[in-house]
Q: What sequence folds into this?
């Protein structure tokens, strides 16, 4: 079996496993795998599948490792390398994790998720340069990227001493060009704009989320805090008044009570009156 075929089959296996767990739940899925192993005890894919559940869903790392080691004995070890990389990343053994991702990427250089996790492992090992390079490859290969990946990469970029914050903001904007305006990405960009002493850009970014967040009391409170931190107390007070008035018309919930407390704390900040 050549590498292309193995890569395709492994990708198909991961997709089918995810679909199965979504439909039947972790416990039932494990029961079905155990039943299948009784009939075909030498099937590598079943050990990989069960080990992946132990690793990700159940947090049972010792059982996961045992299954992956058995899977290595039953077929091509490289078919297990990605899952072993994930397992050791989750158990904070980052050098082992990166070594398994190296092995997997050497055989399957177009598998995007391996680059993302190798980047994270490299960063944990203090290798920010390798982490950024791997994230760049990940974004090039991955057609649909979730916001969390952009934020994880942006935090690594921002840690660079020279031009890191600028590169991080550019990446967040790239993410929003790809997936559309996103509160997670834009909120982190607001913080980075303040970090590079660009308050007007931070305010503009916060303003851009007004419609998306339905002009909510929470958005108003965040805008007020931003305005207070950038020396605009009169404008901040107006947003706090509007947020408090909105909350007064809404049913009290724990989240809204906490938001009201936040508003009251903001009113007590020096210069807020």
A:
């Amino acid at each position: 079996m050549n590498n292309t075929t193995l890569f395709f089959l492994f990708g198909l296996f991961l997709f089918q496993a995810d679909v199965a767990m979504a439909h039947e739940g972790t416990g039932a899925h494990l029961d079905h795998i155990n039943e299948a192993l009784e009939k075909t005890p030498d099937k590598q894919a079943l050990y990989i599948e069960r080990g992946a559940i132990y690793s990700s869903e159940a947090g049972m790392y010792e059982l996961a490792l045992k299954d992956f080691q058995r899977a290595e004995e039953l077929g091509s070890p490289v078919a297990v390398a990605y899952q072993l990389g994930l397992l050791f990343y989750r158990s904070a053994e980052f050098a082992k994790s990166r070594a398994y991702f190296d092995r997997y990427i050497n055989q399957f250089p177009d598998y995007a998720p391996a680059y993302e996790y190798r980047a994270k492992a490299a960063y944990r090992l203090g290798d920010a340069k390798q982490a950024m390079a791997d994230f760049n490859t990940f974004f090039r290969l991955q057609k649909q990227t979730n916001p969390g990946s952009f934020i994880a990469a942006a935090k690594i970029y921002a840690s660079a001493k020279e031009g890191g914050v600028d590169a991080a903001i550019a990446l967040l904007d790239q993410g929003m060009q790809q997936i559309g305006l996103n509160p997670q990405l834009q909120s982190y960009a607001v913080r980075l704009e303040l970090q590079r002493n660009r308050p007007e850009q931070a305010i503009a970014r916060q303003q851009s989320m007004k419609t998306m967040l339905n002009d909510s009391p929470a958005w108003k409170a965040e805008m007020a805090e931003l305005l207070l931190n950038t020396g605009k107390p009169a404008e901040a007070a107006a947003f706090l008044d509007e947020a408090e008035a909105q909350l007064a018309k809404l049913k009290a919930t724990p989240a809204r009570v906490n938001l009201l407390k936040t508003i009251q704390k903001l009113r007590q900040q020096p210069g807020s009156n």
Remarks:
- Residues 173 and 180 are 9 Å apart (CA to CA).
- Residues 18-23 have pLDDT under 50 and may be disordered.
- The longest helix spans residues 3-24.
- Residues 213-273 form one domain.
